[in-house]
Amino acid sequence: MARLDTREKLSILADAAKYDASCASSGSSKRDSRGGTGVGSTEGMGICHAYAPDGRCISLLKILLTNSCIFDCHYCINRKSSNVRRARFTVEEVVQLTLNFYKRNYIEGLFLSSGIIKSSNYTMEQMVEVARQLRDVHDFRGYIHLKTIPDADPELVHQAGLYADRVSINVELPTRQGLTRLAPEKDEKRIETAMRNTKSDIADNKDARKKYRSAPRYAPGGQSTQMIVGADDANDGAIVTKARSLYDRFSLRRVYYSAFSPIPEPSAVLPLKRPPLMREHRLYQSDWLMRFYGFKPQEVVAATDEKGMLPLDIDPKLAWALKFRESFPVDVNRATKEELLRVPGLGTKAVGRILSSRRFRTLRLDDVARLTVSVKKVRPFIITSDWRPTLLTDRADLKALIAPPAAQLDLFAHHGPKAA
């Protein structure tokens, strides 16, 4: 490997980290350096931008420890057989970069991942040492997210959670068949065992903190994972079902979706072009429906077409409503919260305002219009004191009447778009 200076390494390893989507920083514990000691904070505003659920923009130094790797996953630009320029940071270089970037107010934390060098254990030891030095030597109190390596010794992964706010382990692909075909050196059982161990460690730590206030925190931001979309032939229905299973079995904070991006000198088993970015967007919306709107995975799957794919021209909630029109219209003055959450165009905040407002007055259509972003989308599915859609809900051209106009998806929009 050619000798590179830190700036050159940063250029290579920051670019190599762009394929990892799972770098949101929500759920971290609150720490600050008020009082004159310590460096950094998990609070406030600040080269990667992640978004918390409340909309705050979090700036993270997002890099790989190295883009060298002993694995040869077909979809990865950093795979062993890939002809890319290689670089590797030392532990001290990552520590100093993080501190220097923070002191210049460029970042609020670190997202660190890595290719696998020498062995899984050696790589994991290096990543843990970065976090340990930041916390114990430099008293860094900013956010740290470590992408752990499932093949590493469980004790090393456990140590990562002692220093990091969040840990994540990528499941990579939605199906075991896809993983076996495109990443033969990775094993679904080993990945899930690592996730199960982390779930257990987080639960044990919560119990310990109830009994002993001095017990150290363990990954207070929980764990997350990422799936690549479009590299194999898994349809949206399979991806949604897999995601719900991961949430239920491992208590994940987030499942992230990353649209497959063709890489230089690709393997012959990979598709020639990337899936539409809108597909990734719709999967995030379906994820939101399951997490915040009470939809079961089979209900989201019911909104897919005969090939198991979510429509790209309308959001999954509207697609479900158009397929199950017998559930509508609902009376906003009498419907339950669960029924209101299924109305296209009504978000969680709007539903909360409706439930609060109707305690004091009978709601009219104008009232609903003031409580939501667009009443056009809502009208065919609701009843108010002065509005009843009559035959509107049953119209064959209803989709055309309320579907939003086609628009270019913003390549740099943040992950996790809300459904409504």
UniProtKB/TrEMBL annotation:
Name the UniProt record assigns to this protein: DNA modification/repair radical SAM protein
Domain Radical SAM core: from-to ranges: 64-197
Entry superkingdom: Bacteria
CDD domains: Radical_SAM (cd01335)
